[in-house]
Design goal:
- The chain is α/β, with parallel strands linked by helices.
- It is 42% helix and 24% strand.
- The protein contains 16 helices and 17 strands.
- Helix 12 links the parallel strand 13 and strand 14.
- Helix 2 packs parallel to helix 7, helix 3 crosses helix 4 and helix 11 packs parallel to helix 16.
- The longest helix is centred in the C-terminal third of the chain and has 23 residues.
- It is globular.
- Bound molecules: adenosine-5'-triphosphate and magnesium ion.
- Adenosine-5'-triphosphate binds next to helix 1 and helix 2.
């Protein structure tokens, strides 16, 4: 796909003072690496520079000299510290001039929001002479393309959401056109919850150890794992992927919750939607984490009726009807209280299901019998109330996240095991 038929070489240049200052991690580069690699590019280098136009121009010139493609992110905004347009003009040795198409795009976006662009927004239509416009329907700054010698350059905004949306909508089509490439590799992520990385690794060891494709890699997140299978995006590669996924699914069940880019909260929400069921959530140590996760998914309003952060014992009594005697006898972090919280929540919200979580997130508050990380999760339904004990490791944040994820998983498994699709029973 490169000039000599070998893979095209690509590098990424991420611009932003916050990136080199360590105030923000460079997730844009990670995203672009994955997308470009999938298209068959060989990634040579990922570089970060601050907001200095001279530094950006120098980095761009160097990268352009030894790559077929450089993708830039960041610095396309309307403010003085947004120097990417200027830097690209500098590197190309051309003037900045207003692009009619670029200005149209800025105006169109503002009109859609019922606003008029300010004079500083006019800067966003300034592009190096000879640049092509990459339409940005997701924010105000248009991206652009440019040739630096034999190297093609594409510049995208820094806001991750905009950058990602533009990559799918305009960058990938432009790359397919400019490089006569095609998707060379396909990634299939398997999403797993409730298994330690080491245990998951043991279960899929034959595939991880094998030198044969597909390649298999595990990434551990706070509470879930992603096992990514990668193979060639041709018929033989897809057959191998399908076969490996089928075999691995059997080893990972029931912890495998999705194949694809699906978050656990999305998976749970979809199950509830498909079954026409509603939910209430009573949270103590997770402090609203479960509701925050669920409400981040579009469509949550159809299933999530109510959430309650009942942190103090008094709140558990008043809001959820937990019996004072139960609290005194067993303590707030106990099976009995978790069950009572879930049942109280379900009554209160008049929902089909209710989840409850109570635990010791630390760093203080642990005892010999209830050490830091002790968490009880309960799930109440019309059928029964189930309760689960966990002992999580990690710091306060990790314990809270894991407790929230495992609570969602309890509900997921309840829905899969005891609910018939589509019916109210
Ligand atoms: P804007 O119009 O918002 O100014 P921009 O194209 O100028 O967009 P920046 O100002 O560089 O982009 O960054 C906008 C936001 O995106 C900032 O919050 C920044 O921290 C974030 N951001 C920029 N680059 C990256 C990156 N490589 N990875 C993750 N986040 C980034
Ligand atoms: Mg900016």
């Amino acid at each position: 796909m490169g000039s000599s038929g070998s893979p095209a070489k690509a590098s990424i240049l991420a611009c932003g003072e916050e990136l080199i200052g360590g105030r923000r991690s460079d997730t844009n580069s990670t995203f672009l690496q994955q997308r470009l690699r999938r298209l068959g590019f060989t990634i040579r280098e990922c570089r970060q520079v601050g907001d200095d136009a001279g530094d950006i121009a120098a980095a761009l010139r160097e990268l352009a000299a030894r790559n077929d493609l450089v993708v830039i992110t960041g610095g396309l905004g309307p403010t003085e510290d947004d120097r990417t347009r200027e830097a690209a003009a500098l590197a190309a040795g051309v003037a900045l001039e207003e692009s009619a198409l670029g200005w149209e795009q800025v105006q169109r976006i503002f009109a859609r929001a019922g606003r008029t662009p300010s004079p500083s927004n006019r800067r966003q239509a300034l592009l190096p002479r000879g640049a092509g416009v990459l339409a940005n329907d997701f924010g105000s700054a248009p991206g652009f393309t440019l040739s630096l010698g034999a190297c093609r350059v594409a510049a995208l905004p820094g806001v991750p959401r905009e950058m990602q949306a533009m990559t799918e909508a305009v960058l990938l089509p432009w790359l397919l056109e400019s490089f006569e490439t095609h998707s060379a590799f396909e990634d299939r992520p398997l999403q797993v919850v409730g298994l330690a990385e080491s245990v998951a690794g043991e279960r899929i060891a034959p595939w991880m150890a094998s030198p044969e494709p597909p390649a298999v890699a595990i990434t551990a997140h706070e509470a879930t794992l992603t096992i990514t299978l990668t193979d060639r995006a041709d018929a033989a590669g897809r057959r191998r992927l399908d076969a490996a996924i089928e075999a691995m699914s059997a080893r990972l069940a029931p912890h495998l919750f999705a194949v694809g880019e699906t978050r656990l909260e999305e998976c749970v929400l979809r199950l509830l939607l498909a079954r026409g069921r509603t939910l209430g959530v009573a949270e103590s140590c997770t402090g609203g984490e479960i509701c925050a996760a669920l409400t981040s998914v579009a469509g949550a309003s159809a299933v999530l009726l109510e959430g309650c952060v009942a942190y103090a014992n008094q709140a558990k009594i008043v809001r959820l009807g937990v019996d004072q005697g139960t609290l005194e006898r067993h303590g707030a972090v106990s099976e009995e209280v978790a069950r009572a919280m879930a049942e109280g929540m379900r009554r209160q919200a008049r929902s089909d299901y209710a989840l409850a979580v109570t635990g010791v997130a630390g760093p203080g508050g642990g005892t010999e019998h209830k050490p830091v990380g002790t968490v009880w999760i309960a799930c109440a339904s019309g059928r029964a109330t189930s309760a689960f004990h966990h002992r999580f490791l990690g710091d306060r944040e990790a314990i809270r996240r894991r407790a929230a994820a495992l609570a969602l998983d309890v509900l997921r498994r309840e829905l899969l095991e005891h609910e018939v699709l589509g019916g109210r029973g």
